[in-house]
Amino acid sequence: MTFSFTATVLGSPRIGPNRELKKAVESYWAGRLDAEALDALARDLRRQTWTSLRDAGLDSVPVNTFSYYDHVLDTAAMLGALPDRVAGIESDLDRYFAAARGNDTVAPLEMTKWFDTNYHYLVPEISPTTTFALDPSKVLRELEEARALDIPARPVVVGPVTFLLLSKAVGSDAPLLDRLDELVPLYADLLGRLADAGADWVQIDEPALVADRTPEEIAAAKRAYDRLSALESRPAILLASYFGSLGDALPAIASTGVEGIAIDLVAGSDTLATVPDLTRKHVVAGVVDGRNIWRTDLDAALASLGTLLGSTGSLAVSTSCSLLHVPYTLDAETGLDKALRSWLAFGTEKVREVVTLGTALTSGRESVEDEFALARAAASTRSTDRRLHDATVRARLDALTASDPGRSPAAERREAQSALSLPVLPTTTIGSYPQTTQIRVARAARRKGEIDESEYLNRMRAEVADVVALQEKLDLDVLVHGEPERNDMVQYFAEQLDGFFATDNGWVQSYGSRCVRPPILYGDVRRSNPMTVEWITYAQSLTQRPVKGMLTGPVTILAWSFVRDDQPLADSANQVALAIRDETVDLQGAGIRIVQVDEPALRELLPLRAADQPAYLDWSVGAFRLATSGVSDSTQIHTHLCYSEFGEVIEAIARLDADVTSIEAARSHMEVLDDLNAVGFDLGVGPGVYDIHSPRVPGVEEIAASLREALKAVPVERLWVNPDCGLKTRGPAEVEASLRNLVDAAKLVRAEL
Ligand code: GLN
Ligand code: ZN
Q: What is its biological role (predicted)?
């Protein structure tokens, strides 16, 4: 067989250690940087990434994992599958960015979550007229650059099965996988070109094989890899799976002629010993978690590598998936205490773990015994640290989960809430108002120390007062404070809760140039002080109308954080729920009569395999209910969800039992209401009547038409009127105009009743 490497990663972060790529790409969009300068910066970042991976000791380095925006979009470009509507744009780069972000005349591709991560990819659109054609220029160029630097380069591409399964069919209902035969020759061509360019190995990513797949889909994948592996001139193929188990797809893939298979041993639980064909394969064992930030238990990882030795042809150590999902390095963090730091591993530290394990595997552990000792010491302090074992929190949670009767039946609550005296078709918004220039200026000034905390708070209070005054002027029924004080709906709470650490520099790519800093949930969660009460009561003091308290729910807080791996996610969720519950009770005590607990991420954490979904939905619904059942019947609980096609979670939404659910619907023409009816949902619902993702101002008649449509599915007593998400990304003028039309539309339809 071709030389088999021993230590690698499946991919690396690409935004730059200091978000250089983000800044450069945004400057290019703004016309402040030209294409040549952007290209030079990108090349430099790639060089830094590869050389540091090689110098750290990896003997196979992934290339072509760089991207200006998204690797699925790169794949679409490589396969000639960008949408027709951008075809007229001459520059390759601008065509690519137009597909990603749209421009004045073309709409962008849709964006959606990359499996169960927080990374979003662009969904390629494939129509019957799409003619695939190979453009290997990007991958060939990056391979050539890397080889010129003497990097042991392994080009990485998204595989044809995953590409088709993640794409959206337009203009036809036929399954896209039917088009696999059109793609296989292109990949064959690509493999030949890569071999000619000197690649020994190619990594073909097929993460779609870790989700539930039909026997036909698995058979189609097998056929494709039978054909590709039968080629004469090609690099050795590493078929990479990640984010779960291959299950039935594993023996099928192993029976093809691919030389290597990457298996996720962190998220997955495949038993390799039962797959005889693996004794002829190079197995790339993902034992270092590529998605979370904990230091690896090297003893355990080495032991599990040891058990694989007998059942595989050869073995390499790797991360479980690309390091795209973790920050670059711990070195950039200053605020970590010594213990917490010792428990963590970001990108650079994970590469080191891979190398340590590779060394231990190939030449014995003596030379790396120090690293093992450090990992062991960290595991030991982590398991005994008091912050991870707060007896009071645990006792309280146990008592409550055993005894909490939940809320009264919905009808009783409705009765108790009639004191709110709301009109029919009450109007409201989802929480945030535009993050104005004043807000950003104030935040920056505070960070630089130009203004003190009290001046900052004064300015934020002025924003709240403006937002309340605007809502009164517009005649909305249920008001919000506008969330000016929140940088982010999860980080804001993480910063105030014990058990969370907010990083200084732990950026990860969310999509395109957008990066997020997920907080680290490392300990038992405790709320030492009220987190939102002052803001909400201040807003309430300015108006007679009810102001909604605004909280983020436990599932969303977990979904957008790095979470503990030393206890079930359900336990962490309940701890967060307890803190949120305390906040709802305090809000109620302060005279707030409506509290919204947002769960936009409820669907995101849904396990990829159907068999795992019911258990997830049970604990996630349970955590939400724990968070919202501490208040009395007269306090109205709202929730907000950010998507309109729920599939598996629709029943769970009903089980949340929130008095009012606002939900994205504008883009799916109110279909969500039928879905909710189908599961017996009979609570308040506010299907978003206009799409906040676009700057367009919806007309009164248009909104009224949506409401009339909604009234066909929902009795008038249950229907609310609201936009489909928060307004923080919009401009003040369009928000005012849109909300004015929203209120007018509600009045118009009320008059028709
Ligand atoms: N209350 C939040 C806001 O309005 C909800 C955001 C969201 O749904 N992602 O911004
Ligand atoms: Zn939303």
A: Catalyzes the transfer of a methyl group from 5-methyltetrahydrofolate to homocysteine resulting in methionine formation.
Distance of alpha carbon 111 from its chain centroid, rounded?
11
Q: What's at 748, amino acid-wise?
A: L
- Residues 701 and 690: their CA atoms lie apart, in Å, by 12
Residue to probe by mutation, ligand 1, list 118, 430, 536, 664, most atoms within 8 Å of CB: 430
CA–CA separation, 454 and 639 (whole Å): 32
Q: Do the Cβ atoms of 468 and 476 come closer than 8 Å?
A: no
| Short-list 464, 487, 478, CA closest to 427 | 478
Residues 6+ apart with CB under 8 A from 57: 7, 355, 358, 359
DSSP-derived 3-state class of residue 169: strand
What b-and-e string marks burial along 276-295, b requiring 16 or more CB atoms within 10 Å of the CB?
eebeebbbbbbbbbbbbbbb
With cut-offs at 50, 70 and 90, classify the pLDDT of residue 273: confident
1 confidence band (pLDDT: 50, 70, 90): very low
Name the residue among 532, 535, 534 with its Cα closest to residue 468: 535
Q: What pTM did the predictor assign?
A: 0.96
Rounded to an integer, what distance in angstroms lies between the CA atom of residue 500 and that of residue 293? 13
Encoded tokens for 17: 């250690």
Q: What is the pLDDT of residues 674-693, one digit of tens each?
A: 999 999 999 999 999 998 88
Q: Is the CB of 641 under 6 A from ligand 1?
A: no
ipTM: 0.99
